[in-house]
Amino acid sequence: MSILDALQWRYATKRMNGQTVPQEKLDVILEAARLAPSSFGLQPYSVVVVADPALRERIREVAAPQPQITEGSHLLVFATWNEIHAGQVDDFIAHVADQRELPMDSLDGYRDAIKAAISQHPTQEARLQWAAKQAYIALGTALVAAATEQVDATPMEGFDPQALDEVLGLERKGLRSTVIMVLGYRDIENDRMASLKKVRWPRETYLR
Ligand SMILES: Cc1cc2nc3c(=O)[nH]c(=O)nc-3n(C[C@H](O)[C@H](O)[C@H](O)COP(=O)(O)O)c2cc1C
Asked: What is the pLDDT of residue 205?
């Protein structure tokens, strides 16, 4: 299936049929998200995978409650770093040096540029917003990967982030939930959206 066919095929699935996404497909989707680009390559977020049905029951309660959360098989939580510390930038630079077999001091300019960019966001809220932008690129990449794997997915902002953080104990891990995505398979009989035409602005309006 071409990428455009896959993107036509996918839709934000409202009802899922309980079928489990196989591990190898889940791994492709997670790896695609991990390979997403981010500003400076810092990736100031993590992805938390929730498969446990009892935990997803609790999460559904703080998410509208939307049925896909328990009708799907996996929930991906894109969670930004709660704070971006100088030490995390140093760790990242050390990782780059290690992976590319470079002397650390050859990356001094890179490290300073990252720290300078972060200081442009003077409040924790502004830094969280910046990190969230990066997390959404990973979300988009995961959505495309799911479509090409013929796995249904629902991106979701319809949840209470603070309550979700509490359910998953994210604060202890230095994380904050930003956006979530359910993976599973569409329930064609019960999902009224399954047969509806995809609606987007026409090219003439969209491309300027
Ligand atoms: C960031 C984001 C948040 C969304 N939140 C929800 C949500 O909470 N629940 C839901 O059913 N759909 C949600 N959607 C799905 C959109 O409504 C859907 O993508 C849009 O209407 C376009 O339709 P399509 O994806 O089916 O082509 C969200 C989509 C995005 C990108």
From this structure: 94
pLDDT in tens, 161-197: 999 999 999 999 999 999 999 999 999 999 999 999 9
Q: Which stretches in the chain have pLDDT values below 50? A: none
Which residue's CA is minimally distant from atom 22 of ligand 1?
A: 12
What is the rounded CA–CA span in Å between residue 141 and residue 160? 23
Residue 56 Cα to ligand 1 middle (Å): 19
All structural domains of the chain, each given as residue ranges with its CATH number in brackets, are 3-206 (3.40.109.10)
Q: How far, in Å, from the CA of 12 to the mean position of ligand 1?
A: 5
